[in-house]
Design goal:
Number of helices: 5
CATH architecture: 4-Layer Sandwich
Radius of gyration: 18 Å
CATH topology: Double-stranded beta-helix
């Protein structure tokens, strides 16, 4: 859903972030988004380079269809994005249903579907603690408590398999090719542009999202700036006295 809207033009950025936090808390419990423990994450161009290990959220490059924290131990149930300022050009939001993708593959390439239920290696983009592995292993499709869950970002899988020293098999490559071809079909996705103050809220289990490449303003106060919350539907454990 798109919630319209926080009055960002009538309040300070810190007040807008506080309102966004309160709004998000109505839908779930905030989760940390990096090893530093960030809860409110700034999504803007930071001059990073994906080929050097950065996450797409810090670049102007198209992110490609994905789910957030696909490489993590626990994925957020919901992703909330507040648009403080849109890009000068580009940066459209795109959504696609993993249920549709799954059922298209089931009906047309049923022999490849079991492959997507098997583990793939994902690069963790530096989001791991000392002593932990820089890669993780997860299936693309799985089911939990009756809900389809998808973990996906094609580039992270490619890098993950290289780091693992386990080249993708011909069957895996074919399954990923079929999935990527479906993601390119315009008729399967919704596309829109968020306006300042609008909040996008998506289910991170079975909705994949993409942000197209964008051009930013040359003036820092006018550059694209989103704020992100990862939300869990489960209550965090209560600490004892």
């Amino acid at each position: 859903m798109v919630l319209d809207r926080i009055p960002v033009g009538q309040c300070s950025p810190s007040r807008a972030r506080a309102l966004f936090w309160l709004l998000g808390r109505g839908f779930g419990f905030p989760m940390t988004q990096d090893v530093a423990g960030t809860l409110l994450f700034d999504v803007k161009d930071k001059g990073y380079d994906v080929t050097r290990g950065a996450r797409f959220s810090g670049t102007t490059a198209e992110s490609s269809f994905h789910t957030d924290n696909a490489f993590g131990q626990e994925i957020p149930d919901l992703v909330a994005l507040l648009c403080l300022r849109p890009a000068v050009k580009g940066g459209e939001s795109q959504l696609i249903s993993a249920l549709t993708l799954h059922n298209r593959i089931l009906s047309r390439h049923a022999d490849l579907l079991p492959c997507l239920y098997q583990p793939f290696w994902f690069d963790r983009r530096g989001e791991f603690l000392p002593g932990e592995s820089p890669i993780s292993q997860n299936p693309i499709f799985s089911w939990a408590t009756g809900e389809l869950t998808v973990r996906y970002l094609h580039y992270y899988i490619e890098v993950g398999h290289r780091k693992a020293g386990r080249p993708l098999t011909r069957r895996q490559l074919r399954a990923l090719e079929v999935l990527e071809n479906l993601l390119r079909l315009p008729e399967l996705r919704a596309e829109f542009r968020l306006r300042a103050g609008q909040v996008l809220l998506t289910n991170n289990h079975w909705i994949l999202h993409n942000r197209t490449a964008f051009e930013d303003s040359t003036r820092p106060p006018e550059r694209r700036h989103y704020v992100r919350l990862w939300l869990s539907r489960r209550s965090p454990p209560t600490l004892g006295c």
